[in-house]
Amino acid sequence: MLIRKGDKVQVITGSYKGTVGEVLKAFPKENKVIVEGVNVVKKHQKPTQQNPEGGIIEKEAKIHVSNVALYDEKAKTAGKVGIRIETDKDGNKVKVRYFKKSGNEIKDKK
């Protein structure tokens, strides 16, 4: 799975098509992600110590990773992602994600 937490993605299918948001959480074993503002569902919650009032809350639900594409902010489009192996200044081999169409490198947020 080439999409990670903190990446900007664009929804490419479904009722939220065209929406751009940040990945809040990634589930690589399930091939699903939670995107900010996408697939919002209402959940009935009992009162707890953290939420003493309970009630109906809105939260984002998981969406399959095939329904989103990484968003290139420089080119203002969503695109496919590739991986190249480069060497860093210490001589170590490092995997680098990049957009196949524009060639722009994807910076990891660490």
Verbal overview:
With 110 residues, the chain is mostly beta strands. The chain has one domain (8-99): SH3 type barrels. It contains no helices and ten strands. The chain has strands spanning 8-11, 20-27, 32-35, 40-45, 55-60, 63-64, 68-72, 77-79, 81-87, 93-99. A six-stranded antiparallel β-sheet has the order 6-3-2-1-7-8, with no helix packed on it. Strands 4-5 form a two-stranded antiparallel sheet. One of its GO terms (molecular function) is structural constituent of ribosome.
Quick structural summary:
The chain is mostly beta strands and 110 residues long.
Keywords:
10 strands; about 110 residues; Large ribosomal subunit protein uL24; SH3 type barrels; two-stranded antiparallel sheet; about 0% helix; ribosomal protein; rRNA-binding; ribonucleoprotein
Q: Which stretches are low in confidence, meaning pLDDT under 50 for 5 or more residues running?
A: none
Number of helices: 0
Proper CATH architecture = Roll
Cα(first) to Cα(last) distance is: 18 Å
At the third CATH level, what is the topology name?
Answer: SH3 type barrels
Function: One of two assembly initiator proteins, it binds directly to the 5'-end of the 23S rRNA, where it nucleates assembly of the 50S subunit. One of the proteins that surrounds the polypeptide exit tunnel on the outside of the subunit.
Family: Belongs to the universal ribosomal protein uL24 family.
InterPro entries: KOW, Rib_uL2_dom2, Ribosomal_uL24, Ribosomal_uL24_C, Ribosomal_uL24_CS, Ribosomal_uL24_KOW, Translation_prot_SH3-like_sf
Domain KOW: 2-29
